[in-house]
Design a protein that fits this description.
With about 425 residues, this protein is an alpha/beta fold. It contains 3 helices and 23 strands. The protein folds into 2 domains: about 130 residues, no CATH class; about 290 residues, no CATH class. The termini are far apart.
């Protein structure tokens, strides 16, 4: 018996098979574990892609339609990228406006998208008590990009006929949501601009008659209204009757701050009259600001940061029109530091309660043959504006209106020379 036991101890046959079987189990376990880990890493990349896409879509929807639309868009796009929000399920998606963590928690225009998904296990269950949860987070926001000097807030930006528009250093933009936001209507027009920016489509913007430094952009975030603070401003009303201005016999009008806080009933300058304004605010109550052919309106003392603001106001439906006719001369600038700081950099403002007018009979018309130098913001938030003929608007101006037609020549260069708020295009960026 002892001899047999000794032989058994000395026998090494089958040892390699046992070692091989043990090593095979270890190899297959490592491979299975690696497979699980690879799946988790792929899920992490997918979750990050879904968070990036969801944040981008949410920022755009927020800029167009508000927070509820932003949240809905973020959830929808994350779901379309394979990570649908499921209550009580493996995947959850949170869209936070503003972000709940990070550096932009106080920014109402920023959107945070957080994607979480609990993973499954195969061989990893031999080593882990619970499956891991992958998480991805993205914060998107709009960043300002290029200066805009011609902006249609709600309607179309249209150019046709023999139009020549020269605005090489800034963008022409339209926030109109229905296509096309911008239309180039042919003819013998000539447009030079830094770029064109449209919330919806841009029709014929690739025409050879349109010369752009940067290619036009469609389906962009809307450009913010730089003068929106005026929409809620309480404008004065006459305590009695408004003050008539007789162009044939009255002296040059004085601003609101110097005339006993009177509002003018109108300001018609025709018949070759030359009017010299003084720095300050000119309110016109339910009347027109109209410059006729052969007449002029200037402000010789508008120097060293001083300037004027002409404001048309009144009861809804009764607010007058701006008209500058052919063969007139207008040389005006806005104040850098106006006596009423709400008008810093604002030259013309037509009360938002004024009517739109129509494309055939606009409430703001700049007619052909006019020699104009208008420095400052021209703000007509509810009004259609038409530039006819050779109405050369030359200087640092920002034109913001409900909609704008160009059927004439215009040169507009947006700048902050008079403290004018210059709007800027906005593009989506990943901030965190």
């Amino acid at each position: 018996m002892r001899h047999r036991l000794a032989r058994l101890r000395a026998d090494r046959r089958g040892i390699s098979s046992v070692a091989f079987a043990g090593s095979i189990l270890a190899v297959f376990g490592a491979v299975a574990m690696a497979t699980d880990v690879g799946v988790w890493y792929a899920a992490r990349r997918g979750a990050q892609n879904a968070a990036d896409a969801g944040a981008t879509a949410a920022v755009m929807a927020l800029s167009l339609s508000g927070p509820n639309a932003g949240r809905a868009a973020g959830l929808d796009i994350a779901g379309r990228n394979g990570f649908p929000n499921t209550v009580g399920g493996r995947t959850t998606v949170a869209v936070n406006i503003p972000p709940s963590t990070g550096a932009l928690t106080a920014d109402p225009t920023a959107v945070e998208v957080v994607v979480r998904q609990q993973q499954t296990m195969t061989a990893a269950a031999l080593f882990l008590d619970a499956a891991p949860t992958v998480e991805a987070r993205t914060v998107g926001r709009l960043r300002e990009s290029s200066n805009v000097c011609i902006l249609a807030l709600t309607g179309q930006l249209w150019a046709g006929g023999n139009t020549t528009v020269n605005t090489p250093d800034c963008v022409m933009a339209s926030n109109r949501r229905f296509p096309p936001s911008i239309e180039i209507a042919g003819g013998s027009l000539d447009i030079t601009a830094f770029s064109l920016s449209a919330v919806s489509s841009c029709l014929n913007c690739d025409s050879s008659q349109v010369r752009l430094t940067q290619r036009y952009r469609e389906f962009q975030a809307p450009t913010e209204d730089p003068f929106r603070h005026l929409l809620s401003k309480t404008l004065p009303r006459p305590s009695g009757n408004c003050q008539n201005f007789n162009e044939n016999s009255d002296p040059d009008p004085l601003p609101y701050e110097l005339n006993g806080q009177r509002l003018y009933c109108n300001m018609h300058v025709t018949g070759g009259r030359a009017v010299q304004l003084s720095p300050g605010t000119y309110y016109i109550w339910e009347g027109d600001f109209r410059i006729g052919g052969g007449s002029s309106v200037t402000c010789p003392t508008c120097t060293a940061g001083q300037g004027v603001a002409v404001v048309l106001t009144g009861d809804p439906g009764e607010i007058g029109d701006f008209t500058i006719n052919s063969n007139s001369y207008v040389n005006l600038r806005a104040a850098r530091e106006a006596r009423d700081p709400d008008y810093n950099g604002v030259l013309f403002y037509r009360d938002v309660r004024g009517g739109y007018g129509s494309t055939s009979s606009p409430s703001v018309t700049l007619n052909g043959g006019t020699n104009m130098s208008l420095v400052g913001g021209l703000y007509f938030p509810s009004t259609h504006v038409r530039v006819n003929g050779n109405a050369a608007v030359i200087a640092c101006s920002v034109v913001v209106a409900a909609s704008i037609d160009f059927i004439g020549n215009a040169e507009v260069n947006g700048c902050g020379e008079t403290g004018t708020r210059v709007p800027r295009t906005r593009q989506v960026m990943v901030a965190e």
